[in-house]
Amino acid sequence: MSIHRPNAINLFEGGILKSAIADSFKKLDPRDLVRNPVMFTTAVVALLSTILFARDVAFGGQFVKVVGQIAAWLWFTVLFANFAEAVAEGRGKAQADSLRKTKTETQAKKVASADSKTWTTVAAANLRAGDLVVCEVGDVIPGDGDVMAGIATVDESAITGESAPVIRESGGDRSAVTGGTRVVSDRIVVRITANPGESFLDRMIALVEGAKRQKTPNEIALTILLVGLTLVFLIVVATLPAFASYSGTVVPMVFLIALLVTLIPTTIGGLLSAIGIAGMDRLVRFNVIAKSGRSVEAAGDIDVLLLDKTGTITLGARQAAEFLPIAQVGERDLAEAAFLSSLSDDTPEGKSIVTLARSRFGFKDPVSASAMSFIPFSAHTRMSGVDMNGTEIRKGASDAILNYVADKSGRTPGGQPKDRSHWSNGWPRRAARPCWWRVTARRWEWSTSRTSSSRGSANVSPRCARWASAR
Amino acid sequence: MIATGILQIILYFVLLIGLAVPMGRYLAGVYEGKIAFLAPVERGILRLCFVDPDQEQHWTVYALACLVFNLVGIFALYALMRFQADLPFNPAGQTAVAPDLAFNTAVSFATNTNWQNYGGESTMSTLTQMLGMTVHNFTSAATGMAVLVALIRGFTRRQVRTLGNFYVDALRSILYVLLPMAVVMALFLVWQGVPQNLGDYTEATTLEGAKQLIAQGPVASQVAIKHLGTNGGGFFNANSAHPFENPTALTNLAQMVGQVLISAAFVFAFGRMVGDPRQGRALVIAMSVMLTVGIGVCYWAESQGNPALNGAGIDMVTSVTNSGGNMEGKEVRFGIANSALFAATTTGTSNGAVNAMHDSFTPIGGMVPLVNIMLGEVVFGGVGVGLHGMIIFVIVTVFIAGLMVGRTPEYLGKKMEAREVKFAVLCILIFPLSILGLGGAAMVLPAGLAGMSAAGPHGLTEVLYAYTSATGNNGSAFAGLSGNTPWYNSSLAVAMLIGRYLVIVPTLAIAGSLAAKKIVPPSAGTFPTYGSLFIILLIAVIVVIGGLTFFPVLALGPIVEHLMLAAGTLF
To answer: Is the pTM of the predicted complex or chain greater than 0.80?
Structure first.
């Protein structure tokens, strides 16, 4: 996997600045301003000083120029706070756009109906809910949807963390597929259920754009502190005329206004929301999507990071590690049967059996391949195998094999070990899919290929395996 | 400023810290229940009062208990003053105290303010002094101590809804701390010549042949607790400047140490109780720095003397025969250094006893006590309330510091969130609201203006000081103000109530909210609250909040007076 680093957005990009200037006036709407009490106070005071200015201009006042200047500065303060917020938001938007570009350009094979044989290639982003797409071996499922027809094994390790591919088929509770997962075998037709803009990635983009920004707990606490300080200084300024009148001084209203604004914490109040947005924006540059300011804060409080194996670090490729014969079967015989029956299995697991058999016993590709009839692995049969000279060799899920044998011979195979405990002490019950081998048409032998290392960790990538053993 | 003066101040600090450290250990033991040699007495008293000592209280119940206890005290004291004429132990035949004065005084003593709009020897009977004033000196101090202990428990407990039992904490404060110390101190004072009797006032004939009535009574017992409990309400009108209340240099030293000792010891005890003595030490250092600056400025300003007198060619240079500097309103027995030290410690704590008249200080010298109270009396502060006021500032400080490093702020492992900040801000908001609100009203109302004895900025300072002192529950006064009027009696009482209970209740709310939280173990990202960076930040927060709030009004009072004094205008 490569790391996509979105290009850094220039802070003073012309487009951002232009829309930010417009936004800083739009944000003068009292309903927006009241969300930030300190700036709201400043705006109210600015309005008041503007009225004072107008009065002084109309009727002639002692401090016309001073009043005008103070009003201008106050409006500038409010506008600048809005501007800073708008720039931060604009940056977030630009970042989101670049994120959209890096969104995987999945191509989908759109079909008219479930049984249609021909398809048209469209971009995954253009799929609407209700569209039908066909997905074949190796295809990435283009969007969240339901399986309409067919059955397939799907590698969902990226989402669920389960390394074994899962079966997805139409109907029942196994019909839902998730966009971004990969079809490992067979072919399915999927009806897309999510419109563009509703997918997980789209929601992340929306968050970056600040559309759903909520105040974080610390921000709320800080706002309380700032409001408290604003109130304190409001009291200070409001009582000042009383003390001043005793001293025989009349303090002009406009000077009180100026004093109030210098005292109240306007700077931090004005930049607070911009700071929050900038923090999330900064994370995006490191390919971290913060779903909310809340999570940025929580990240700051992290002392210890505990990691368990999760989907994002799992490769959905189980690897055979050992042949574990049982009963009277020799390991070499087992390996050979496994080798032959896996030649036509293109799943990672099948390939790994071939590789393991080659490296352990040096098997070569069969010379008389023409005499053999290979049966590829499919999600329907959950088996693969080979027919040669009247001998059928099958490998697959245990119940599939059992049914197959029962169908063929009309009886359940004997010799099935009732007690599984002697297989191996370290048998990884959870992860293993036992593979059963039918060696000849007459003799039923039960053997198994162990597809996991003793710690049950071979189903994770080598790096994860090291973590697991270090736990 | 002279060497012996500075030396005395240093000696004072050494003595104070030397006593506060072991005392802190003792306090921690008492409140953690490890020291319990009076357990039978304690249990007996609690049983008598129908209090179950094992019944722990939620913060609301704790606060309610505290308020009810104080309310009952206020009514009892009020009744005592109103009926004192008909009660025994009234050698001087004092009449009933006027309703407004009685209300003011009752509130004043219940809130640990001990603002006195009366002269003790000319208004109160001996019974009122003993049963009213002295008892309230104990109970109001114990209330403050109990509240602090509850707050400390908020930090030490984890995920618990209760804070302890108010009655148990208050009783322990009296039994183990205040009472034994007061007995020792009273005996010391008696030894030094402070009267302790129930006799009649002595009638003496002066050298001029005039008749003089020399007041006396159970002085030593009241003076001892007056200092230890940072109450400050003297037996005599002249308070600790009176030779019967403060006869010698030793009593003066004992009173100065006594009024800070328990508060300072509590800071050390705090460190012990939260399991990290460094935390207590850091706060002691922050408080000491602020106290030292206050004393330094006051001592320096008073040593400069009055520029008007300097200009008149009067010798103001300190020598063996001349105390030098500004001696107006000061006891010759104590001199400038001890007066400045007394003034700074009595206002840094919420004591309010005086051994010199702050009204007569130079403008800058007089501004020091004023600023000390305005900053919230957190320089050791009143018993209990001082440290809890400091912790409020600490909460604000760690909050600001936490935001700087981008983590949820925490103090002693407790996260400081919106709820704590809300109540901390409420505590901070109360001060300017009461001081500037009521003070501003007094500056425009005729009733308020009538009380001033001085004109111009000095008059403004007198009024400002009165409301600051009342709100801060200090009780010292710029004595020029005639406070015994219905307006001042009632408005100052309101200020005292606001400054006491509107701080105690939010503090207990913080304690309750903290006790319910988990304790987060410190990690590499935790802001250390014992280093020099924290101490500097804490002092800066206190000074900036206090400074910005009160600077405008200070500029109209002491600062402009100082400038006008330099220019030769007197008030």
So the answer is: no
